[in-house]
Write a structure and sequence with these properties.
Strand 7 and strand 8 form a beta hairpin. The longest helix has 12 residues. Helices cover 12% and strands 54% of the residues. The protein is mainly β.
């Protein structure tokens, strides 16, 4: 009976990480933004294009309030630097059976009190691509 328990524990905790796959990043960039400074671009996959804009408006109690507008739909969320509250994940093009799912990740890296700037990391996994618009 003990052999079955050990086999079950081994199969449950040690075998799944062998088959786990890390995401393949089609876009990976660190950005530094001042308060209310926009970061804009287009997310595209095959023939679909969707606009994306990002900015932050408030840093209070170690939380960064981020405003994201993707495909004319507004999102507002708070990111912290601690584990499991530092990243926002958004599915980009829905459940299209023909293509793999693509996701946008926004992670809060650091806040510089002296300069008043926030460091963020943007990543896109899957087939989608990102084209940054030039800042004026």
């Amino acid at each position: 009976m003990n052999k079955f328990i050990y086999l079950f524990i081994f199969a449950t905790f040690f075998v799944p990480p062998i088959f786990a796959k890390s995401p393949i990043w089609s876009f990976d960039q660190n950005i530094v933004l001042k308060k209310d400074q926009f970061y804009k671009g287009m997310v595209y996959q095959d023939t679909l294009e969707k606009p994306l804009s990002l900015r932050w408006t408030l840093y209070k109690n170690f939380g960064l309030v981020v405003h994201l507008n993707y495909d004319s739909f507004p999102y507002q969320f708070i990111l912290y630097r601690d584990y499991q509250r530092d990243t926002f994940k958004l599915e980009l093009f829905g459940n299209d059976e023909k293509s793999k799912n693509s996701y946008l990740y926004i992670s809060f890296r650091d806040f510089n009190q002296k300069d008043g700037t926030a460091s963020l990391w943007l990543g896109i996994s899957g087939e989608a691509q990102f084209l940054e618009q030039s800042q004026q």
